[in-house]
Amino acid sequence: MSTSTSIIISSVIIAAAVLFVNLGGVSQSSGNNENVSILDGKQIVEITARGGYSPQLSLARANTPTILRVKTVGAVDCSRALSIPAIGYRQNLPLSGVSEIEIPPQKAGGILRGVCAMGMYSFAVNFE
What we know:
- This protein starts with a helix and ends with a strand.
- It has one helix and ten strands, in the order αββββββββββ.
- Strand 9 (111-116) and strand 10 (122-127) form a beta hairpin.
- It is of the alpha+beta class.
- It is globular.
- The strands form two sheets. Strands 1, 2, 3, 5 and 8 form a five-stranded mixed sheet that branches.
- The protein has a single domain (3-127), classed as Immunoglobulin-like (Sandwich), CATH 2.60.40.
- The chain has one helix at residues 3-22, and strands at 36-39, 42-49, 53-54, 57-60, 66-72, 81-84, 89-92, 97-103, 111-116, 122-127.
């Protein structure tokens, strides 16, 4: 196999992976609300960032002030470089620690997506 063929094949694979992540490669019909709680009138959505994001899909209440609490523990991969385009958030998370991100109330049916800097890992919060 020639070098140019290998490059083309690699490019196609990378493009497919980026499309999968950006088009919501997570099933929208299932989700997790065990990581969602209400504290002092605010909704807390907890996500872990290390080798990806967990859970990948969370279910949250619409029209509720929300804090996205992202926990890192020895994260040395690209999941530390978090981007949430809908709210203009782009930050490098600490190697280990907790970052709290204020999310304005979202409408029912809204989906908030987060993605790492390389587009390899993503998560979504569905507001119902």
